Records
---
Amino acid sequence: MDEGPTHMTGQHFRDLAGRVASLIERYWDGVDARPVRATVTPGALLEALPARAPEAGEASLDRCLADVERLVLPALTHWQSANFYAYFPSNISSPSVLGEFLSAGLGVQGMLWATSPAATELEMRVLDWLGGAIGLPDPFLFGTAGARASGGGVIQGTASDAALAALVAGRWRTLRSLPENARRAALPRLTAYTSTQAHSSILKAAMIAGLALGPEDHEQFRLVPVREDLSMDPAALESMLRADVARGLLPCFVSATLGTTSSTAIDPLDAVGGAIRGVCGSTPWLHVDAAHSGSACVCPEHRAMLRGIELADSFCFNPHKWLLTNFDCNCFWTRDRASLTGAMSVTPEYLRNAPSDAGAVVDYRDWHVPLGRRFRALKLWFVLRYYGLEGLRSHIRHGVRLAALFEELARSDARFEVAAERSLNLVCFRLSPRAGEAPEQTDARNRELLERLNATGRLYLSHTVLPGSGPAPARYVLRMAIGAVRTREEHVRAAWDLIAASAG
Ligand SMILES: Cc1ncc(COP(=O)(O)O)c(C=O)c1O
């Protein structure tokens, strides 16, 4: 009779947990010395791993841990390196890793309040803490109304998940504003809007929700032009909305960005919200994607970007980018829970229970696509309790200060130019055009510089292409995003020295 496999003893678990913690600590201690970008060739790790799963288990896990060091670590790109400046930071911290570990160990599944009340109520409380700390208005929080509030926050996996949730909520609300028998026929008339500089996840959400058949399909998905500072042009949005409404279309969703991916441009929320209200009233959903830059709102001096937030229906940012909380953790708040859950809620008999039926609890399964959900609030709670808001502000200010330093160094060298206004911790820069040089040649020199720099392994930067304003051509630029937990002034200075020495 099969009595099941042999599970690990408590003592063995504690020993191995200690060994894994030591491995992580050693990794952190040595990570800055590793080449930042993975140096392996495609398929190398795949070949080094056996083609089939082992038939017999390995009770000690000794060889498995050795394989982590021998095979896995060398095939990583080191996002936690002090010299990682590509994309946006992907912060972790010891308290968040411990919170994640605890969450895995408790192993609860918080799809309903009833399936683990603590998972829901800790998340509600922590989202209220964080929402208040970044300056969101009360309608976005649960507050004293708790589970009966009309707004509130939830942890989504990513900003992409949040965008899809917001879009379907906007679609639901717009359709509900029509007579029931007109809703199905209205589907092809729904339209969504975001700027040309918005993250691709907004377009992806439109594709998933059936508003775009592919990236090039703009029948129901509009890209609003940007102003010189690369923020959404509210006047252009207003004309698009007017033209669409005049054609009988139904705008249902606008996504504004606070901190665009390419250059951290900040869309003017008050003007964007004003344009929507002026043309369409309050039916279309205004979502605010602050995936990266929203973390900065823990500092009062960076909250000006929230001007107009009261006109928005949802707001999200990723503590897993710049707020010391390991992936995945997107915090999403809405002031219209009813439309969000209206768009998502299906209640089969097997999920019914008395507190849910009484409407006395929050059931987070209705706030996003997945039913099952991890206890992610634990890691955010650990981070908030360990650092306090003071510690979080200090982390943000440190990153912004280092970016200002880097910008100053780049501006002081006549061979370089800063290519976009810096709003926070990202500096877009490039080798300046030489006299008489064609734009493609300047781009090629910058592309080569980036490749030369990254090939040294001593740092890792990424690139983007920024649109030119008016007749000016688009520009290939290097992105220096500062905010990794280990980055200090000496790293930024060393990075600049390497860049300056490689410039030719
Ligand atoms: C502005 C913006 N929105 C959305 C995203 C996508 O984030 P996620 O990986 O959480 O979906 C990014 C990623 O960098 C981003 O910069």
---
Amino acid sequence: MEKVNFFGQSLEDLKEILKKYGKEKFRAQQLFQWVYQRGVTDFEQMTDLSKTFRAELPNIFTFDLPLIVQDLISTDGTRKFLFDVGGGKTVEAVLIPSEDRLTLCVSSEVGCNMGCRFCFTGKQKMQRRMTAAEIVGQFVQADKAIKGDQRITNVVFMGMGEPLDNPEAVFKMVEVIHSPWGFNFSRRRVTVSTSGLVDMIPLVAKNKVRLAVSLNATTNEVRDFVMPINKKWNMDQLLAACKDYTEETGDKVTFEYVLLKGVTDSIEDARRLKKVVRGIPCKINIIPFNEHPDSGFERPDEDTIVAFHHELMDIGVHVLRRKTMGRDIYAACGQLRSKFEGHPEKLDLQSAMT
Ligand code: SF4
């Protein structure tokens, strides 16, 4: 039989695989503990397994992780990893520290086909969906890199790719890190962000993880322009799916709203936004645009950002202005990858920092 990558297997998958080799189910738990809780991938060190079993295991499993080819730490503590995923392709993951948490932002696809106009990754067409092992691998590698007293407390699927375009691998990764024999990571600390794949939103509820929606407009006309997915599923359909999610899970949905100068940043937009989200238990993150070369968009000035935020103050929901982190290490998703893969003409450090 062909060898399988251990990191792409849930506990249930592992039980099935071991069953084929005539092994007891509890062996899967033992293996999970060795690999995820003790960080051991050398079968010889797994001393509670019989010698014969240990000798068989290398014929069944590999432990292939995406290699870290860049590891950049920002002056604000943000840490960006660039992973080699083969074929000359790379993806990014980012560790974002804050007062009480350490959030890992992971990628789910190499490039992205959603074409959101403000997004650097969206300019780089999708080459392929990532495997579950590669997504788990980002977590394992980041966890290893921070070893010490720190732990990853939250995972967000807000890196490269549309996670709901690769649901099987994304939710398999959640399954692996959630396992009590693995990282015992709470599902409630995982957030899946979507550009608006409405028909996939019920899967987010089913997997009991949190939902974030990149809203970024208050009318269909503007959203059609900024996020082409809106032509397939319009705002009414998207908001109805969000409402269903909140009813099914009892959780709030987080609406992400990027402020683009002259496009989504007016006071009328802020007023419409209040109406648009009315009746949906939610939080709102407003994100002043992080400029990058050739985006065609600008960041609003500070007064406009403050006025927009202020207009939402009486809405009765939590409205947070997201800080731009890691400006000195290519903050916009996809920028580091673009530089590394040899497109320096698309990027210079000075531009990335403005
Ligand atoms: S914002 Fe997300 S979904 Fe949209 S193009 Fe960028 S990576 Fe894809």
---
Amino acid sequence: MTDKTPYQDSLPALERAWKLASAYVAGLPERPVAQPVTPEEMQAALDEPLAESGCDPAAAVEEWFDRAERGIVASSGPRFFGYVIGGTTPAALAGDWLAATIDQDAGLWDATPASVHTELVVLRWLKELFDLPRAWTGTMATSATHANLIGLAAARQWTGQQRGFDPADDGLGGQPAIPVISSTEIHMSARKSLSTLGLGRSSLTTVPATDGSVDLDALQAALDATDGACIVIANAGEVNTGAFDPLDAVADLCDAHPGGVWLHVDGAFGLFARLLADKAANLDGIERANSVAVDAHKWLNVPYDSGFAFVSDEAALTNAFRSSAAYIPEGDYPDPGAQVPEMSRRFRGLPAWCALKAYGREGYAALVQRCVDNAALLGRWIEASDDFELLAPVNLNIVCFRYAPSGVSDGKLDDLNRRLITAVQHDGRAFVTPTTWGGKGAIRAAFDNWATSDADVEILWAALNEVGNELI
Ligand SMILES: Cc1ncc(COP(=O)(O)O)c(C=O)c1O
């Protein structure tokens, strides 16, 4: 037996990565959230010819960090409020490191019984956390987009079968169309999933949404105009306002539709409202859905990339994704890879297991409550301000607003808000992103990070006001 194995060569590189990572994590609250950098500057910092002879792995890790640092955004830090981006809790980060180290292929039971069973436990815990029907089948996914794809693939399968064909086996060519209905506020990721599934990102029928929430009369009319089985996509947490479609009422309309409806719910971040006594009613009726898509890298605060999907009809899910080959015989135990688009998969269950174990139901309820309270705090300051205007009620964790100081004409406000967002991003104290709401150029601040405190909200508010003042 030799003293040294080739794997021991990993240790100096891991030590270097540990030093960089621990300094990064410790410095997250103080680090500028983002720094202005152009694509040309990043290209100059990183691009070079492929190495012929290579170098010491530890040096490679360190060199990358030094060269890339200006383009690293502290999006897992406490003052990143753009898009809908969660942080990474200590337990999840440690779990993710271990997942990379043991490098399991969580698509195959034989390849990794521990990972497959961890994932199953996580999925059961999530059903308990959100009080979802325990009989639902769950899968871990890379994101809410991927979870939307998984849920809608099961939806396509079921709806096609109701219409007399098998979409996965037969394909869609020459078959009856599969109608899909949603509100105009459907998330772009669900549209992207529809395009990937051959259902068409534009053949979707959209009906109006009032303040982000589907108009039930319009949905009823769209269902009345649809013959036979179809798919309805509902929002549990609209991305600009956090508004919810009334799921129970939507499910009533679906139940009454001749031919049947597969109800898919995008609850990427909104499902977490289920953890709060005064917000949970927004999700009444979720148990009547046929599939639900959720993100884990948002409010579960596990590292990228991670999400999960739940499906009520396991056969529809398995028929959508099953595949076989001589070199991968079907075992006694179902392979997770048989219920998702990919075969080989990262062990996403481990960071989620560590986080759910470390923080439990109470820890997550407190995390979600803190985010909702912080969003409400910013909302109150905006309402009380002469210079800012709230564009939608703060329904959950998203604040949609604009800068509208007196003396600036309405026609100039969209441009002013765009410039304010860029200037705040360059300022580095906080990070917000743009949207449009009610035809007005708007600023979005989303609260999804476990570590954001009210002091961080104060810093955001100071940055918005000070940078705004400088602009006018
Ligand atoms: C409602 C909703 N659905 C889906 C997504 C897509 O999530 P991801 O980018 O993780 O795929 C988002 C992202 O913000 C979202 O807010």
